[in-house]
């Protein structure tokens, strides 16, 4: 599909945008351990961990994981229980499961090497369009177009200050026009770092996005119950619902609902009334 240039900002606005983003990066760019490696597996691990999780929380987990499982083969070779024990506290346990399954697929289908095409990356569990684009860019310096919350913030702040419910379809053409095709990796670092800063100094620009939704509280949620169950099963092994309920203040009904959803998603298996992490 061709870009509709009539809907783009003026060239001088795009140039000013680039200058501002690069200037901020030179002066206040952030540093994370996965930005200083030439290892596609380490970058894939970081991108899965960063899904819906703040960067500073990810750093100690990433460092520990890369020490324990520095290759897809290393992660593919351990039990799902051990993987989820290491994941505990990072949230959204399905990501930890998907990361192990992705490692298994990389070993069995891609000869132990992280694939270098979008279509191949999308075959990996837990890898969607954004994460595939991020891996291509950060691991292989491919000039691809992708969008996430910090990038969205920057574009909304610069070009859509007086608009609401802005869809990503209006942002993508601007990303295409401003992409540094010689150095896409650092350009995206610069965009993300500027977006992270904006959220600290102004009202979150993402509230003007058509895709914005406020996350519901964790306490008392089904997510809380699911996290508790996965943590207990990974630590204690097979256990009944009654014993789970006896060790928490989470209601029996909410635990049962959470367990049923985990079984349906094949995160958890049930055998003779006892539940366990599914391998």
Report helical residue fraction. 55-70%
The coarse silhouette is globular
* Order of adjacent strands in the largest pleated sheet: 1-3-2
Briefly note the CATH topology name of the largest domain: Endonuclease III, domain 1
Q: What is the assigned CATH homologous superfamily of the largest domain?
A: Hypothetical protein, domain 2
Uncertain stretches:
1-6
Instruction: Give me the secondary-structure category.
Output: mainly alpha
The overall pLDDT average reads 92
Distance between the termini: 42 Å
How would you describe the oligomerization state of the chains in this entry?
single chain
User: Radius of gyration from the CA trace?
Assistant: 21 Å
CATH architecture of the largest domain: Orthogonal Bundle
GO biological process, one term: mismatch repair
InterPro entries: DNA_glycosylase, Endonuclease-III-like_CS2, HhH-GPD_domain, HhH_base_excis_C, HhH_motif, MIG/MutY
Cofactor: [4Fe-4S] cluster
GO molecular function: 8-oxo-7,8-dihydroguanine DNA N-glycosylase activity; adenine/guanine mispair binding; iron-sulfur cluster binding; metal ion binding; oxidized purine DNA binding; purine-specific mismatch base pair DNA N-glycosylase activity
Looking at this protein, list some descriptive labels.
globular; single chain; Endonuclease III, domain 1; 3 strands; disordered N terminus; Arc Repressor Mutant, subunit A; Endonuclease Iii, domain 2; 3-stranded antiparallel β-sheet; 3 domains; 14 helices; 4% strand; 279 residues; mainly alpha; adenine/guanine mispair binding; EC 3.2.2.31
């Amino acid at each position: 599909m061709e870009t509709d240039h009539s809907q783009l900002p003026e060239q001088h606005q795009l140039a000013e945008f680039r200058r501002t983003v690069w200037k901020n990066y030179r002066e206040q760019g952030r540093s994370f351990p996965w930005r200083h490696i030439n290892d596609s597996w380490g970058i894939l691990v970081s991108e899965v961990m960063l899904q819906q999780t703040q960067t500073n929380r990810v750093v100690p987990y990433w460092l520990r994981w890369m020490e324990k499982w520095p290759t897809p083969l290393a992660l593919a070779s351990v039990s799902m229980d051990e993987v989820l024990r290491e994941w505990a506290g990072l949230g959204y346990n399905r990501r930890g499961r998907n990361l192990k399954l992705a490692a298994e697929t990389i070993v069995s289908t891609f000869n132990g090497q992280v694939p270098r095409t979008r279509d191949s990356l999308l075959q990996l569990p837990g890898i969607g369009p954004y994460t595939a684009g991020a891996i291509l860019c950060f691991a292989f310096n491919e000039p691809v177009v992708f969008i996430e919350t910090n990038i969205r913030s920057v574009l909304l702040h610069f070009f859509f200050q007086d608009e609401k419910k802005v869809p990503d379809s209006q942002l993508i053409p601007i990303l295409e026009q401003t992409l540094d095709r010689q150095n896409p990796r650092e350009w995206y670092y610069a965009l993300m770092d500027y977006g992270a800063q904006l959220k600290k100094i102004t009202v979150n620009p993402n509230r003007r996005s058509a895709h914005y939704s406020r996350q519901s509280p964790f306490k008392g949620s089904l997510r809380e119950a699911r996290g508790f169950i996965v943590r207990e099963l990974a630590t204690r092994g097979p256990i009944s619902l009654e014993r789970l309920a006896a060790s928490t203040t989470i209601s029996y009904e909410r635990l049962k609902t959470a367990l049923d959803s985990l079984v349906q998603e094949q995160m958890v298996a049930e055998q003779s009334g006892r539940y366990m992490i599914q391998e």
